[in-house]
Amino acid sequence: AFFRFTPIGLLMRATADGHEAAVVSGINVNVMNRLAWAIGSTLAAVGGVFLGQLQLASTDIESIGLLALPAVVIGGMQSIPGAIIGGILVGVIEQLSSTYISSKSSDIVIYGLLLLILMVRPWGLFGQKELGRV
Predict the structure, then answer these.
(1) What is the per-residue burial (b if ≥16 Cβ within 10 Å, else e) of 88-123?
(2) Where does the chain have alpha helices with state H?
(3) N or C, where is the chain less crowded by C-beta within 10 Å?
(4) How far apart are CA 42 and CA 59, in angstroms?
(5) Contact (CB, 8 A) for 2 and 12
């Protein structure tokens, strides 16, 4: 909703879509880049605080970070709803593989799915194929 309905979100989408076109349109690209990094850092900090409340300091926290990459790539790097669906898909597949196969095999199954999807659709399930012509 932020990227679709707010003026700042639309400016950020325009900057992400085409850097040169945004500059020509009069958008201050440096401010948009700084704002994107600030929003991303703030959301990561809030997520870290919530995650810290659920788990005490342990060595199992890195597994959550290692599962975020397949979720985003499977869903599509350009699509936020695709990344959400990719995260749900990764969670369901992780639980099903740990239940029916083995608890140690869940990462192998997820990364195998990632490899399969990258071979079939390199831009992800909901990503868009970009054609670059020179």
Answers:
(1) ebbeebbeebeeeeeeeebeebbeebbeebeeeeeb
(2) 2-5, 7-17, 19-24, 29-54, 62-75, 80-100, 106-120
(3) C
(4) 24
(5) no
